[in-house]
Amino acid sequence: MNLEELDWDALERLRGLFLEGKPVKTAYWRSISDLVSYNATYGERIGWKWDAVLRGLAGQGNGGWKPPLGPLLDFGCGSGVAGRRVLASFGPNAFSSLHLHDKSRLAEGFSADEARRRFPELKVETGAPEAAFGVGGPVTLVVSHVLNELPPQDLRRLVALARRATTVLWVEPGTFQASRLLISVRESLRTEFKVIRPCPHSGQCGLLAAGREKDWCHHFASPPPGLSMDSSWVRFARQAGIDLRSLPYSHLVLERCAEEARSGPEGAQRVIGRPNSFKGYLDILSCGGDGVVDLRLQRRDAPELANALENAKDAILGRWEVREGRITGGKIMEPAE
After folding, report:
1. How far is it, in rounded angstroms, from Cα 5 to Cα 11?
2. Which helix (H) or strand (E) covers residue 172, if one does?
3. 62-112 tens-digit pLDDT
4. What three-state secondary structure class fits 142?
5. Which long-range contacts (CB under 8 A, 24 or more apart) does 119-125 make?
6. What is the pTM of this model?
7. With the C-alpha atoms ordered 219, 154, 98, 43, is the resulting torsion angle positive or negative?
8. How, if at all, do strands 326-334 and 317-323 pair?
């Protein structure tokens, strides 16, 4: 990243639009300079969130989770970081083609050029998202950071597209509003798909239960090692007014499958957010097939588990031994050591 080449006016305008959180009716990319500057900064931070989700998929179960061979559709692609991260993680040979869609033709062109440069053997197309479903093969739909800007009618169109896909990989900011909207998407699709992540079950979301109205499902990604020593990123963060360490995200990974295959690992629990650490104990918001519950782990009861929970850098999946709201033991299944 070259700070002197960044278009700071464009970055400030774009960040203001995103933070405003209102539906955007027109394309907000005005020039290639917008896309280049965004891609190198805020787009890269979004890429770190995708890295966390994709690490989780690679470590899920025995041998990791993989999408089926077929077209990859990046909806609302922007600078294309989400699609490229997915391609880099699974390999370009895991997909028959890449389809890029954005309301901005400028963004589609930029994303296509970047994808062709990174993956020269891969067929790359732009235009209407429905075209991805006409080329044959199961479609993997990628969606990234769009919920805060989609008008209701566009969100309905996107959910209809998701309903036609075979797999869905969706990442949003880890805010209350984005998480709650993503939960509504999950609820509209869960009877047709298995929920791969973050939920350890495909039943109704436990955060929809009475008393959970103020909670939201989110996790935290880790920035690349050594980022705090990178002078360019440190200067960028200072000038942009952001915390490089704070990378909350919400996500949803779905896979179409038979109803009998939709159950998750028996007894598995996903930690929502991070454990809250205190001197003698940890408080944990834990999600499982029986709902979302508040649990407490006294350090003296399971010191090794407490340390592992505190030090885990990705979304935590585990099995707990629980007695009267207290975790007395258990093990972490993800992230794998």
Report:
1. 12
2. strand 167-173
3. 678 999 999 999 999 999 999 999 999 999 999 999 999 999 999 999 999
4. strand
5. 119/84, 119/87, 119/92, 121/92, 122/87, 122/92, 122/95, 122/97, 122/98, 123/96, 123/97, 123/98, 124/97, 124/98, 124/100, 125/97, 125/98, 125/99, 125/100
6. 0.94
7. negative
8. antiparallel
